[in-house]
Write a structure and sequence with these properties.
The protein is of the alpha/beta class. The protein has a single domain, classed as Rossmann fold (3-Layer(aba) Sandwich). Helices cover about 40% and strands about 20% of the residues. It contains eight helices and ten strands. Strands 1-10-7-4-2-3 form a six-stranded parallel beta sheet. The chain is globular, with a radius of gyration of 16 Å. The two termini are about 20 Å apart.
């Protein structure tokens, strides 16, 4: 990565971390994917039950592979014949892995969801939530974060899931009510009532969608 971009990212990340701390959440800076993996694993005690939503960023830093190989109880929803059972198992997990569709410079986390298992687990249930977030997802404020979630992340995810939504066909949000819409629920996480529950690992890279 360009040295000037990396410097800017590191400085901006500190602003985001201060914002998270003011909201009773913890932020962590990782200068590389390898460092992000080490930070994430440091937050997960061995023996923990761990599951996730569709967190591409966790896969990109090697976290999913590390959990499967390590001394952890990884709940792999892809291995469940009953997908509902896999989703329900997340609510009693020690750790839930997620990413953000966007995060603001002052630490507000924005996610949109279709089945809503991801946003519901972020809001309540698992004892700890760890977000892995590339610096490409940082936005100045909630309005621009929502704009990224709806107009950038949603069309890409609809396309990769093979859904029949207007945004999958055009690449642009149509504020649709399609049966396939993945913008069913919007979660804005602006504060954590429980200290030590939500952690955000900010990564000096472009991760996810």
């Amino acid at each position: 990565m360009n040295e000037n971009i990396a410097k800017r990212n590191a400085l901006l990340a500190q602003k985001v971390i201060r914002g998270l701390e003011s909201r009773n959440m913890s932020g962590h800076w990782a200068a590389s994917k390898e460092e992000a993996l080490a930070v994430a694993l440091s937050l997960i005690p061995e023996g923990s039950s761990v599951t996730m939503g569709g967190c591409t960023s966790a896969r990109e830093i090697g976290l999913v592979d590390a959990l499967k190989k390590g001394n952890y109880k990884f709940i792999d929803r892809d291995a469940f014949a009953d997908k509902r059972a896999a989703m329900l198992a997340a609510y009693d997990a020690d750790v839930f892995l997620a990413s953000a569709n966007a995060i603001t410079e002052d630490g507000v986390i924005v996610n949109v969801d279709g089945n809503s298992n991801r946003v519901s687990a972020i809001a309540q249930g698992p004892r700890k939530v760890i977000f892995v977030v590339g610096m490409n997802k940082v936005r100045p404020d909630v309005d621009s974060a929502l704009d990224r979630a709806r107009h950038v992340a949603a069309p890409i995810n609809a396309q990769r899931f093979g859904l029949s939504t207007p945004c999958a066909k055009t690449g642009a949000c149509a504020d649709c009510k399609s049966p396939d819409t993945i913008c069913c629920q919007i979660l804005i996480t602006r504060f954590s009532r429980h200290a030590g529950r939500i952690h955000v690992v900010l990564v000096n890279d472009a991760l996810g969608f």
